[in-house]
Design goal:
alpha/beta, Rossmann fold, 3 domains, five-stranded antiparallel beta sheet, 15 helices, NDUFAF7, SAM-dependent_MTases_sf, transferase, methyltransferase, protein-arginine omega-N symmetric methyltransferase activity
C-alpha cells in the first residue's frame, strides 16, 4: 500500500516544530509544490477562467506562432538537425505546445517537443489537446549506456511527450522556460548592522511569522559580492535554484539555445525596493496576500535577478518581450490576421474570428506596462 503524503500544513508545522524555523526557500517549495496541498500540485496556475494568473501562451495562440518562427530560424542555423528537440520547462497544461503545433513550423517533421511539468495535475491535462507519445518514441532507445546520443526515426515529427523533470539525454535544440524562474524557491536576505541576515519562517502566537537570523559565512560572502554597498535593512532574493536550473538547462544541450521569458531586474535594483514589490502572490487573477498567508492557496513569485544568472553563464542576450516578438514577426502575423478578418468578417467564419483575435492578443503581448515589458533571455551553446 502506497503511503499518502502528509497534508501541506501538517508537514510544514512539523518541520518548523523540529527545527524551530525553516528557511524561506523551503517554505516556498512546500507552499507551491507540496504533493498534498501545494499550489501547483493542486492544479493552480496559468489560464483564463478558473485560473490564477495569465502568461503569454495563455493569452492565445499568437505567442506560440511567433515562437514557431523563432524555432524554425534556430533549426536552420543548426543545420536542420533531425531530431530537433524542444524542451519546454514548466509547460503547464500545454498551451504553448498546442500553439506551436497549430502554427505548423517548417521544422515540424524533425520536431520532438518535450513538455516538462512537475505538477501531476497539470501533466494529466496535457493529453487533452496533444497526441502524447511515450518518451522513448521521442528520444529513441539508448544504443550505448556510455553515450548520451540516441537513435530515433527521422522525419517522424512532430512528436510530443511529457516528463516530470528535464530529460537526462543531451540534445540538439532549444530549452524554453516561460515564467518558470520566478516560481523557483528563493532565499531572502536582509542587510543587518553586523552583516547579512537570512529570513526564516517560524510560528509565533499560532501564526506563521518571519524570523531573521545571521546568515552563514558562505551566504554572507556571496551577498557582499552581489551587493557590497547595501543599505541597512535592504532585502534581496538569493536565487540559487534559478541558477541551478540554468546550469542544468545549458548542460542539457549539445548545441542550441536556452530561452527564458520572465520579469527581471538586478540585485541592486531589487534592494532599493520594498520586498513586497518583487516578492508577490497571485490568486484568481488578483494580487494575493502576504506570502506566509494560507500556504498552498496562492502563487508565490519573485522577480528574476539577471546578475545572479549571469554568474552562471555570462553570454546572455536580452530583449524586452515586445522587441523580441517584433524581431520574430508578430507584426506580419497580426497583419495577416487583419486581412483574414477584413475578408471574412461579414460571414463570421471561425477563421475570421481567429484573425481578429490576433490583433487583440498582440495588444496584450506588446503592452509596455504588462507582458511587453518582460525580458526574453537567450544563451547559445555550440
Amino acid at each position: 500500500m502506497v503511503e499518502q503524503p502528509k497534508p501541506l500544513i501538517e508537514d510544514l508545522l512539523e518541520r518548523i516544530s523540529r527545527n524551530g524555523s525553516i528557511r524561506f526557500d523551503e517554505f516556498m517549495e512546500l507552499a507551491l509544490y507540496h504533493p498534498s496541498g501545494g499550489f501547483f500540485s493542486s492544479g493552480g496556475g496559468a489560464g483564463r477562467a478558473g485560473a490564477d494568473f495569465l502568461t503569454s501562451p495563455e493569452v492565445g495562440p499568437l505567442f506560440g506562432a511567433v515562437l514557431a518562427e523563432f524555432l524554425d530560424a534556430r533549426w536552420q542555423e543548426l543545420g536542420c538537425p533531425d531530431p530537433f528537440v524542444v524542451v519546454e520547462a514548466a509547460a503547464g497544461r500545454g498551451a504553448l505546445a498546442i500553439a506551436v503545433r497549430a502554427a505548423q513550423p517548417v521544422c515540424a517533421p524533425a520536431l520532438r517537443y518535450v513538455l516538462v511539468e512537475r505538477s501531476e495535475a497539470l501533466r494529466e491535462r496535457q493529453g487533452d489537446y496533444l497526441p502524447l507519445v511515450q518518451p522513448y518514441e521521442v528520444f529513441g532507445p539508448a544504443t550505448d549506456e556510455d553515450q548520451a546520443l540516441l537513435t530515433v526515426d527521422q522525419g517522424a515529427g512532430p512528436l510530443f511527450c511529457s516528463l516530470a523533470d528535464l530529460p537526462a539525454e543531451s540534445v540538439v535544440g532549444v530549452v524554453i522556460a516561460n515564467e518558470l524562474l520566478d516560481n523557483l524557491p528563493v532565499r531572502i536576505l536582509e542587510r543587518g548592522h553586523a552583516g547579512w541576515l537570512e529570513l526564516r519562517v517560524t510560528v509565533q502566537d499560532g501564526e506563521l511569522s518571519e524570523l531573521l537570523v545571521p546568515a552563514d559565512p558562505v551566504t554572507d560572502r556571496l551577498a557582499n559580492q552581489l551587493l557590497p554597498h547595501a543599505l541597512l535593512g535592504a532585502r534581496i532574493p538569493l536565487q540559487t535554484q534559478a541558477a541551478d536550473w540554468l546550469y542544468r538547462a545549458l548542460s542539457l544541450l549539445q548545441k542550441g539555445s536556452v530561452l527564458v521569458v520572465d520579469y527581471c531586474a538586478d540585485s541592486a535594483g531589487l534592494s532599493e525596493r520594498s520586498s513586497a514589490e518583487w516578492l508577490r502572490t497571485y490568486q484568481a487573477h488578483k494580487r494575493g496576500q502576504h506570502p506566509l498567508h494560507a500556504p498552498g492557496s496562492q502563487d508565490i513569485t519573485c522577480e528574476v535577478a539577471l546578475d545572479q544568472l549571469q554568474r552562471v553563464a555570462p553570454g546572455l542576450q536580452s530583449l524586452r518581450q515586445a522587441d523580441w516578438l517584433s524581431q520574430w514577426g508578430i507584426d506580419r502575423l497580426v497583419e495577416v490576421g487583419r486581412q483574414i478578418w477584413s475578408e471574412g468578417a461579414s460571414e463570421g467564419s471561425l477563421e475570421a474570428v481567429r484573425g481578429r483575435s490576433r490583433v487583440i492578443e498582440a495588444e496584450a503581448l506588446l503592452d509596455p506596462a504588462g507582458l511587453g515589458d518582460f525580458q526574453v533571455l537567450e544563451w547559445h551553446i555550440g
